[in-house]
Specification:
single chain, 210 residues, alpha+beta, Ribosomal Protein L9, domain 1, Ribosomal Protein L9, domain 2, 3-stranded mixed β-sheet, flat
């Protein structure tokens, strides 16, 4: 069965992609949780049209990509997220999240499929690789910060990772030794109308875009 994803789903695809999944998986998981919607011909045509528009804002030549890479070298993106006491996120930061923030905050358009992360599941400082063109890759500084707080020094983050690993191996401690998030925290539901707005709201042509 073909569906259109309304959010990034790990090991399935990125938001807005048309993917083929087992009918039972779609009916029992993706559709009721509003993680996807059925891929009708009209919806698929609209997705294809949107992808063509977005492609106009991406680097078309090696020189374009080099200029964009220089620009991204000075960019920093930040996500304030819900996290447990050991730094594990109640959810994740996905390639689509990174691409969306690069456009919204910095008016830089990149291909989500060429962002070199799966998902980020812990607070921390990251260098996220993005392939802009053949042989041109930029790394974007990315901060994943606990909601309402700030990141501790790097050495403290390293200790938190070790503590979390030890807790995970302790049979008396569930998971990572922290309060487990609710279903609502883990499976963020994206309303269909929000996806429609995202598809319809194409960015205007920018002179600074490649």
């Amino acid at each position: 069965m073909e569906v259109i994803l309304l959010t990034d789903v790990e090991k399935v695809g990125l938001r807005g992609e048309v993917v083929s999944v087992a009918r039972g998986y779609a009916r029992n998981f993706l559709l009721p949780r509003k993680l996807a919607r059925e891929a009708t011909p009209a919806r698929v045509a609209e997705i294809r049209k949107t992808e063509e528009k977005r492609a106009k804002h991406e680097a078309k030549t090696f020189e374009d990509a080099q200029q964009l890479a220089e620009r991204l070298a000075s960019v920093e993106v930040r996500f304030d997220v819900k996290a447990g006491p050991t730094g594990s996120l109640f959810g994740s930061v996905t390639p689509t999240d990174v691409a969306d923030q690069l456009w919204e905050r910095h008016k830089v358009r990149v291909d989500r499929r060429k962002i070199g992360i799966e998902t980020i599941k812990r607070i921390g400082r990251y260098e996220v690789p993005i392939e802009l063109f053949q042989d041109v890759t930029a790394e974007v500084r990315t901060l994943v910060v606990p909601e309402g707080g700030e990141l501790p020094p790097e050495e403290e983050l390293d200790l938190d990772v070790l503590d979390a690993a030890a807790a995970a191996q302790d049979p008396q401690v569930g998971g990572e030794g922290e309060i487990r998030p609710t279903e609502e925290d883990v499976a963020a539901e994206v309303p269909a109308d929000e996806f429609d707005r995202a598809v319809d709201a194409e960015p205007p042509e920018q002179a600074q875009q490649p």
